[in-house]
Amino acid sequence: MNKLYLIIPLVLTLTFTGFYLNHQKEATAKAVWVQAEAAKAAAAIAAQKAEVEKQAREDADRRTAERVAEEKKKEDEKRAKWEAQSKAIADDTANYIAQTEKNAAEVKALEAKLKSLREQKDQAIQAGLDFDSEVEKARIAKRACELEIQRLVEMIARKNGTTLAPVAATP
Q1: Would you list the DSSP string of 5-64?
Q2: Which of 43, 48, 126, 150 is the most buried (most CB within 10 A)?
């Protein structure tokens, strides 16, 4: 029995080693296959990620180009609107300046006309005053003449000795 103690464990060890080596080969092959599959999956994921990144980059570039084009369009529209408004303001300014010059000339002409009309009015007023003065002088002279006539009539009446009632002057 002594030999059996040695042979049985040795046979079992050799069997176990055979199973172990066989399993080791299968496990290594499976690990290599799993690594290959993982590498394929990683490559597929990397390719998909690269494709997604490429699409995202293209989309971002496209959106950036669209945004830049839209901003440029808005800026051009804004500049065109500003230039149109500037031109309208310049035209209005030129029109208003021309109107101002025209109005200034009209004001000068009206002021000259007003001055001449005032001079005419002053002359008319002065002529009226002169006329009134002449009329008043004529009335005074008439009254003086009437008084002189009355005095003469009374003098003649005293000389002749008759008294006459005052003679009314004929108008």
Answers
A1: HHHHHHHHHHHHHHHHHHHHHHHHHHHHHHHHHHHHHHHHHHHHHHHHHHHHHHHHHHHH
A2: 150
